[in-house]
Amino acid sequence: MPRPAILGVVGDSAAGKTTITRGLVRILGEDRVTHVCTDDYHRFDRKQRAEHGITPLHPDCNYIDIAGQHLDLLREGKAILKPVYRHADGTFGPPDYVQPHVFTVVEGLLGYHTAAMRDCYDVRVYLAPPEDLRRKWKVQRDCSRRGYTTDEVLTELDRREPDSAAFIRPQERYADMVVSFFAGESGDPDFLDAEVVLREGLPHPDLSPFIGNGARGITIEGRGSERLLRIPGDLDPARAAEIEEAIWDKLHFATHLRSQRLGEFTVGIDLHRSESLALVQLLVLYHLVVARAAIALGGDGTRAPLADRS
Amino acid sequence: MTRPIILGVVGDSGAGKTTITRGLVGILGEDKVTAVATDDYHRYDRKQRAERGITPLHPDCNYVDIVAQHLSLLREGEPILKPVYQHADGTFGPPVYVSPKPFTIVEGLLGYHTETMRGCYDVRVYLAPPEDLRRRWKVQRDCSRRGYTTDQVLSELDRREADSAQFIRPQERHADMVVSFTEGQGRGSGALDAELFLRDSLPHPDFSPLVGPGERGVTIDEGDSETHVTIAGDIEPAQAAEIEEAIWEKLHFASHLRSERLGEFTVGDDVGRSESLAVVQLLILYHVVTAKAADALGGAGPRAEAATVE
Q: What's the pTM value of the predicted model, to 2 decimals?
């Protein structure tokens, strides 16, 4: 089997990692995706972290080298015995035997911390929502699904801030795509604006033909070697469909993957859909699918070789 | 650092693996030895094994491919995140981070089951005590240290026999040294005879000059591709000392390791000493130390040399 194509989705706690990946996994097929969460590589359980006064965001609190080693092994097509961290009670469970599938999706806090890890990915996404939005998301998630109180979550966020600044946010610079969702004027979660920084490490599809047409279209702004793509939350559905069509056109060999499921997200237990989220996910999917096709044809993905970039 | 030298000590449950290795670890130094028990790679905990009616001796009950992977990683000087099986209650504990040290000693039931695994060792020892002696040892150990009753251990032994015959005992053929301690003519447990099969896959030290005519301590029987050596449990201490002296002389570069700790074993809480055990341990030590020295000098190791001689 050719090696798996590996996607990294890195960002602070509650930055939206699972929301982004869930739709991709459903499209690619659960049975074709190996899902790895770097939280499983915590060195200390919840009780030990409290005793040591260390946050899970600190590299010393994680077996970073083993996470890198395991990614390497998966990339080589080998199975791993993955540790299991249980968010429900903050302890470790029996390890999981994980076989490499066609795709590997890695979600985590410190996924780009070391060069060894960064080298493993075909596609590197970093999620950078504004802090006030991330705090809101974290309170919602941790109170509804991980059994914390609002006060506990807010205190924890403050306690983690120095480590977020020192270790998490600096990883943004290594991403091929930096994704930020913003609450628009309405604040309606179905209509968040998206901003995507597209870096030249990967060849992104050209969306310039779709720029403009008033307030409800996308914009692209050049910023040195990167481009900033803005997708308004209230993007005209017809425009959105046109852009998606153009991207799928470039993925003509993978049209069997097309479905209407991109853009879904949950608020509590309610299922919503967002046009801007769908478009961001499709862009990520684009890179993963193209990398996979290149690998299957004997190439080594689509990342520009280091020499070409310097 | 030079790569770790890897010793395998394989045999059925209660065969004496820990007794053999404890003395070696004492000599090599705890800080220089990584101890790996393949029991840690059980796929199912005790409860799951009972539900499925599978014994821990069955390959399907173990992540044997991951054992091989972890041994390869250690051999390459890489750390591993080792799973932990807790014999005390039959469940898995948090994994431990294991750094490679100059020596790795692998104890286990299925250490030579696959060719990939077998390829990892510098020295392969298999322990083959007579079944009646092993049953007695297992009852003593499991009742005193693992909280079972005599009845439970005996019925478990019966339940496991089919898998022992099918998966454990056939591994004997892959060893460089097969070791059996046997009760001689009605002597006490402190004076077991040792029976060794030394295979040509490693160059063993020559015992023949030490067997004088008429002496009853050591016998040697040269076969086609293996030498059969017996060391009487009641060997004269002076003759044992002579054999040990001859082996240490070949290890003249490692004389700083000499100590009186070889030959110790426990019966319940009592510590006993056996001359024949001491000689067997020293022979194993000889191979481990020689492999280390060869590797430190850039050699491929005694196993490769033995292969070229053939």
A: 0.84
